[in-house]
Write a structure and sequence with these properties.
Blueprint lengths: L20 E2 L2 E9 L3 E8 L4 E8 L13 H13 L9 E6 L4 E6 L4 E2 H6 L6 H20 L2 E2 L8 E3 L5 E3 L6 E2 L30 H16 L8 H10 L19 H7 L11 H12 L9 H9 L38 E2 L8 E2 H15 L3 H11 L3 H9 L8 H11 L25 H15 L2 H11 L4 H12 L5 H9 L3
Antiparallel strand pairs: 1-2, 2-3, 3-4, 4-6, 5-6, 7-9, 8-11, 9-10, 12-13
Helix pairs in contact: 3-4, 3-7, 4-6, 9-10, 9-12, 10-11, 11-12, 13-14, 14-15, 15-16
């Protein structure tokens, strides 16, 4: 099995020649690369030991580098990880500097990343999933006692050795707990695993790792992450949406209900509602297991991980026929503000066209809210402009549902929520589309949106932004027009999520 320390891609060919050595270490080959650096496999010639060398990219060390804190963060990583000694934490051997690179020599892990497991849809047996979690919480308890928290717990940063021992890698964004509690660092981490306070001005503490651990536990138990979709949608879900309890998902084998409370508390939106520390969460997990938890993943599971698939996770959409008559399950949302006032019975689409039932649109918006977050209203109104009746609108919106196998369930639920008679078929509108939304356009918004789009399609974004702005009187209409203009060359949902965050 290929070694993939730090969750980086294996065998990446950058086209650049390998250094023969870094400090005393003899470089053998490239293991992977990330945004900040590269990782090499090397040999310590003094004791003939294989090591992994993480080297910061040379451009980041240049005097005119945009990220002037990169070198400092890299040194902080070495300081933080170097003072940690635990069997479940990758050991740091040495920090060094050369004229053109800074590097860390660390333990070489010949194992399997949990990212490989989740990315191919495999699911660990329950006992092994619990073993992974207990090992992780043991490692975090050690780090937290030293005043260090990881801040990027995710499958890509967790390795399993052939013996079934978990290794936590990459304390690269770990923060040392100093006396300066007012210092704020750059928000670093991975959407979907980041705690809600990481998106705000609230200073993080060790409980951010417990939230991420709760997300990982959910994923290991169910075979699916609790928060899914484009980055903007995920952020909204993390902040406001309570995912379905693991035991309620139709996965085989089913998740025991006693783990629901552990997951819910670990992923509580407020840090004060979570476990106080890793040891407390570990104790709760052991109580829920109702039997001893193995210190390592079993040998049979590791054999299957190395040479074949484990049991594939099967997530089955809940059959609509099984639902109680007259009831439709709604995603649990932490009481967001209503998108459409219930008292408003009708929303005119255009003076010359039939009117849409606002109650039906509001019901559909609530159903899509966990998927699309703040841009839900824009998407639903955009669909209303493009379709001729309620059935057409529901079918059009089904494409916005993240998981393809969940789309039939969405269609059935949307129809159940909208029992009113269909709006009479109408011809497609000609001429300019009606203006939707109420937020006036601002000149500076065009430049901001242009920069967002340019990251995906390049300089042509300036032309498209100007054209979209010329036909839009509101921010909402501008975003939709810009997404239309970009067409199939971009991820529409991701682009709208990014635009929505502009102010």
């Amino acid at each position: 099995m290929s070694a993939r320390p730090l969750g980086l891609a294996h065998g990446v060919d950058t086209g650049h020649p390998l250094p023969q050595r870094l400090g005393k270490y003899l470089v053998s080959h490239l293991l992977g690369e990330g945004a900040m650096g590269v990782v090499y496999k090397a040999i310590d010639p003094d004791i003939h030991r294989a090591v992994a060398i993480k080297a910061i990219r040379a451009p980041l060390l240049a005097p005119d580098a945009q990220d002037i804190s990169a070198t400092a963060r890299f040194r902080t990583e070495a300081q933080a990880a170097g003072r940690l000694s635990h069997p479940n934490i990758v050991s740091v051997y040495e920090y060094g500097e050369t004229p053109d690179q800074h590097y860390i020599a660390m333990e070489y892990v010949d194992g399997t990343s949990l990212q490989e497991l989740v990315s191919r849809g495999d699911r660990l047996p329950l006992d092994d999933a619990l073993s992974v979690m207990v090992q992780l919480l043991d490692a975090l308890a050690c780090a937290h006692e030293q005043g260090v928290w990881h801040r990027d717990i995710k499958p890509a940063n967790l390795m399993l050795t052939p013996e079934g021992r978990l290794k936590v890698t990459d304390f690269g964004i770990a923060r040392i707990d100093t006396a300066d509690r007012t210092h704020r660092t750059t928000v670093l981490g991975s959407p979907g695993y980041m705690a809600p306070e990481r998106y705000t001005d609230e200073a993080p503490d060790r409980r951010v790792d417990l939230f991420s651990s709760g997300v990982l536990l959910y994923e290991l138990l169910t075979g699916r992450p609790p928060f899914r979709g484009p980055a903007g949608t995920v952020m909204y879900q993390v902040m406001h949406v309570e995912p379905a309890a693991p035991s309620t998902l139709q996965v085989q084998p089913a998740v025991p209900a006693q783990f629901d409370a552990v997951v819910a508390r670990a992923m509580a939106k407020r840090a004060d509602d979570r476990y106080a520390d890793a040891a407390q969460m570990r104790a709760a997990l052991r109580d829920a297991a109702e039997r001893p938890i193995a210190p390592t993943v079993c040998a049979e599971t590791m054999r299957r991980l190395r040479f074949g698939r484990i049991e594939a996770t099967q997530v089955i959409p809940r059959p609509m026929a099984a639902l109680p008559s007259g009831s439709v399950p709604m995603p649990a949302v932490s009481q967001p503000a209503p998108l459409v006032a219930p008292s408003a019975p009708i929303i005119p689409v255009s003076p010359s066209l039939p009117e849409w039932d606002a109650r039906a649109l509001a019901a559909i918006e609530r159903l899509l809210l966990p998927q699309l977050g703040p841009m839900t209203r824009i998407v639903v109104r955009d669909g209303a402009r493009r379709t001729h009746d309620l059935s057409g609108l529901i079918a059009w919106l089904a494409s916005e549902v993240v998981e393809a196998d969940e789309r039939p369930a969405f269609i059935a639920r949307a129809r159940a929520l909208c029992p009113a008679p269909e709006v009479a078929a109408r011809p497609a509108p000609s001429g300019p589309l009606p203006v939707l939304g109420t937020t006036p356009m601002r000149t500076e918004l065009v430049e901001q949106a242009q920069r967002v789009l340019a990251e995906q399609i390049g300089p042509i974004a300036a032309v498209l932004a100007r054209r979209a702005a010329a036909t839009a009187a509101t921010r909402e209409a501008f975003f939709c027009a810009l997404a239309d203009a970009a067409g199939a060359s971009v991820d529409r949902k991701l682009l709208l999520a990014q635009l929505w965050r502009l102010r």
